[in-house]
Design brief:
The chain is α/β, with parallel strands linked by helices and 210 residues long. The protein has helices spanning 67-78, 100-108, 159-162, 180-193, 203-207; strands at residues 3-12, 22-28, 62-64, 86-90, 112-117, 129-132, 144-152, 166-174, 197-199. The longest helix is centred in the C-terminal third of the chain and has 14 residues, at 180-193. Catalyzes the complex heterocyclic radical-mediated conversion of 6-carboxy-5,6,7,8-tetrahydropterin (CPH4) to 7-carboxy-7-deazaguanine (CDG), a step common to the biosynthetic pathways of all 7-deazapurine-containing compounds.
């Protein structure tokens, strides 16, 4: 199987429990909740995505012939001591492409593997760190993992029901749009009301990182 990668880059993880950790990001092209085209946003299930995942023309992106080739590119991107290698599989929706061969190749290269998924597809069981960000209007089938990261506000999201899902960490992340200040207040209010949740900020945006 070949892999369509929009972009790949070395940065610091900006969100969630792993925030601040050096990471290779592999952003896969394609998503099952939005085409990525602005003309389709109004009718998409997920309408607030702030990421370009269309095509394979981003920095470090391309079509990789097999899992070994993609893992080798991630190793070259890491460019440092093998200890602590950390890779984040994201998108779009990475589970449209991630398979056993890629997980095996990344593990063989010494990577601890994290994924950021919308949860509409089962996550590969070989992944080490599972972050699910559910989208209102979609069916979340992956209801267990390491962290549940809910962008807020999302009308139609049932935070009470989500508290029964099998996640180690429950995170609320303010929606970054024209109402950002109000969204931050709403997220903080929810955490104050329901203390099982924690506030998650997009620190990479605050620091000017990719």
């Amino acid at each position: 199987m070949s892999y369509a990668v929009k972009e790949m880059f070395l940065t610091l993880q900006g969100e969630g429990v792993q925030a601040g950790r050096r990471a290779v990001f592999i952003r896969f092209a394609g998503c099952n909740l939005w085409s990525g085209r602005e003309q389709d946003r109004a009718t998409a299930i997920c309408r607030f995505c702030d990421t370009d995942f269309v095509g394979i023309d981003g920095l470090g992106g391309g079509r990789f012939a097999d899992a070994e080739a993609l893992a080798a590119a991630a190793v070259n991107m890491w460019d440092g001591d093998k200890g602590g290698r950390f890779v984040v599989l994201t998108g779009g929706e990475p589970m449209l492409q991630v398979d056993d061969a890629l997980i095996d190749a990344l593990h063989a290269a010494g990577f601890f593997i994290a994924i950021e998924s919308n949860g509409t597809l089962p996550v590969n069981p070989g992944i080490d760190w599972v972050c699910i960000s559910p989208k209102a209007g979609s069916e979340t089938v992956q209801r267990q993992g390491n962290e549940l990261k809910l962008v807020w506000p999302q009308p139609g999201s049932d935070v009470v029901a989500m508290e029964s899902w099998a996640f180690d960490h429950l995170l609320i992340q303010p929606l970054d749009d024209i109402n950002a200040a109000a969204n931050q207040e709403a997220a903080m209010a929810l955490v104050m009301e329901r203390p099982r949740w924690r506030l998650s900020l997009q620190t990479h945006k605050l620091l000017g990182l990719r």
